Amino acid sequence: MTNRPVALVTGASSDIGKEPASALIAVGFYAVGTSCDVSGVAPFSGVTILNLNVARDASVAIAVQQVVELRRSPTYPCRSTRSNDMPSTA
Predict the structure, then answer these.
(1) Is 88 inside any structural domain?
(2) Contact in structure between 18 and 12 (CB atoms under 8 Å)
(3) Scanning 9, 23, 32, 33, which has the fewest C-beta atoms within 10 Å of its C-beta?
(4) What is the reported pLDDT for 61?
(5) Residue 10 belongs to some domain of the structure
(6) Is 9 within 8 Å of 22 (Cβ atoms)?
(7) Structural domain of residue 54, as residue ranges?
(8) Which residues contact 43 (CB under 8 A, 6 or more apart)?
(9) What's residue 39's pLDDT?
């Protein structure tokens, strides 16, 4: 496991989130991007995309738990994926 810091970037399905995520990766962060609907989000280099509706407490709790689990993963930080595995909280 590495001590590479994790950045959680909301709105990663649009340029307003993609650009900061890419910039954070460039300076050594592991970026986890979020979108309220990941079904149409194409993964982009070095970023894991998770479902997150920031207006729903349950969605926030699930996303945080997923980040913790990703951080504990033996393959961290080698991921560029979309996660549809979480229950819908929209």
Answers:
(1) no
(2) yes
(3) 23
(4) 95
(5) yes
(6) no
(7) 6-83
(8) 49, 80, 81, 82
(9) 81
DSSP string, 54-89: TT-HHHHHHHHHHHHHHHHSTTTT----EE--SPP-
> Is 1 part of any domain?
no
* Cβ atoms within 10 Å of 62's Cβ, excluding its own: 19
Under 8 Å between Cβ of 38 and 67: no
Q: Give the per-residue pLDDT at 90.
A: 46
pLDDT value at position 69? Answer: 87
Query: C-alpha angle with apex 17: 1 to 57, nearest 5 degrees?
Result: 75
Do 50 and 83 form a contact (C-beta atoms < 8 A)?
Answer: yes
Separation CA 45–CA 67 (nearest Å)? 17
> Could you tell me the mean pLDDT of each successive run of 10 residues in the chain, 90 residues long?
79 83 90 85 79 93 90 63 45
Domains: count for the chain: 1
Kindly state whether residue 40 falls inside one of the protein's structural domains: yes
